[in-house]
Amino acid sequence: MFYECSDLNHFLQDINYYYQEYNLQKKTRFFQYINMAKFSSFLSSLETEKDQNKKCHVFSMKFYESMEKALSKALVENQFELYYQPFICFNTRKIVAVEALIRWNHPHWGLISPDKFIPIAEKSGLIFPLGEWIIREACSDIQEFLSYPLKLAINISPHQLQDTFFLRNMIKILQETKFYPQNLSLEITEGIFLENSTNVIKLMVKLKKMGISLALDDFGTGYAGLEYLNDFPFDVIKLDKSFIHNIARKSRQKSIVNSMVTLAKTLNLTVHVEGIENNDDLNWIISEGINQGQGYFFCPPLSINQLKSFLKIWVYL
Q1: Helix, strand or coil for residue 184?
Q2: Which InterPro entries match (predicted)?
Q3: In a 10 Å sphere around its CB, with 0-12 CB exposed, 13-18 middle and 19+ buried, how is residue 287 labelled?
Q4: Is the terminal CB of the chain with fewer CB neighbours within 10 Å at N or C?
């Protein structure tokens, strides 16, 4: 077993319990669930609009326009929230980093996950002010933990790296929040390989010279090939959770992950994993020489206040 600690298990259960209770006790939660169901079906119509008739296409465009307005309003009214999921070092059993995860706390739809609204933000250009808000807010939050050295991982849209002001804004935020660039990791999806590679690579090199580390997020789900991994200056590849789920019982999946780990080692890249949900998977991951990861087996995403409590408990395990 990786650990046996009833206190930790009880703590995690309490986090989930109170989080669920908080949501269920909201006065309008029942109606929010109904609206959220409608919201999801609307997004599905957006994703399949090519297969719909003209009437549905017009409806989708109107919905997109309304969603764009809602996102703009959300930025002004501070409807976005950040949650933090810890990274665990398997050798030391210490929390070494946290990943900032954005949620949209809509007044009628409730909490909305980023996969539902980030594509709209990217298409509309709102990803630029939203992305800047995420970086500033996360750096401000984690800067409080000076007595507990934590690395901060932030997800960056490939679109943001096309922004000519990205580097300038990054430097400004780090200076204003007094956050050390050496403690920052930017996680970028494989969509980066479809962008203007020459300019993006130059920007990534500048970020690395500042001390910021770069991680290729959701590795294995997109466009990454040997030529891309050679050209782009990544430090880490992060295996997508779809490869990790119940991997201890799936021989084909083991072979795929083993090949990915071998490739990473050949290119001098560190491997992290996400989506660890049970002890059997964890033990197999450790046997492959992977030393760092995250997942609900350890801890769900936490609010900043929950993270503070979690860190206090974890220190004594």
Answers
A1: strand
A2: Cyclic-di-GMP_PDE-like, EAL_dom, EAL_sf
A3: exposed
A4: N
CA distance 52 to 295: 38
Say what the pLDDT of residue 66 is: 82
Whole-number Cα distances in Å, 235 to 101, 208, 229, 238: 21, 9, 10, 10
Rounded Cα–Cα distance for residues 98 and 152 (Å):
5
What pTM value is reported for the model? Answer: 0.80
Determine which helix (DSSP H) or strand (DSSP E) holds 153, and give its type and residue range: strand 151-156
**Residue 267 CB: number of other CB atoms within 10 A?**
12
Mean pLDDT across the stretch 232-245?
92
Q: Of 316, 308, 276, 306, which Cα lies nearest the Cα of 88?
A: 276
What confidence category does residue 221 fall into, taking pLDDT thresholds of 50, 70 and 90? confident
Question: Quick one: which H or E segment has residue 314?
Answer: helix 304-314
pLDDT digits (tens, 9 = 90+) for 8-67: 444 444 444 444 444 444 434 433 444 444 455 545 555 554 555 544 444 466 767 888
Provide the token pair at 43: 């997004």
Nearest to 39 by CA among 15, 13, 11, 70: 70
Domains and CATH numbers, the chain: 81-314 (3.20.20.450)
Whether the CB-CB separation of 239 and 208 falls below 8 Å is answered with no
Task: Name the nearest CA neighbour of 96 among 150, 148, 145.
Answer: 150
Q: What does the alpha-carbon distance between residue 218 and residue 212 come to, in Å, rounded to a whole number?
A: 19
Give dist(CA 52, CA 293) in Å, integer.
Answer: 41
Strands 110-112 and 80-89: unpaired
Question: How long a stretch of residues is the chain?
Answer: 317
User: Do 167 and 148 touch, CB atoms closer than 8 A?
Assistant: no
Distance, CA of 122 to CA of 196 (rounded, Å): 16
Quote the tokens at residue 192.
Answer: 């980066």
223 secondary structure, DSSP code = S
pLDDT in tens, 99-135: 999 999 999 888 889 998 999 999 999 999 999 999 9
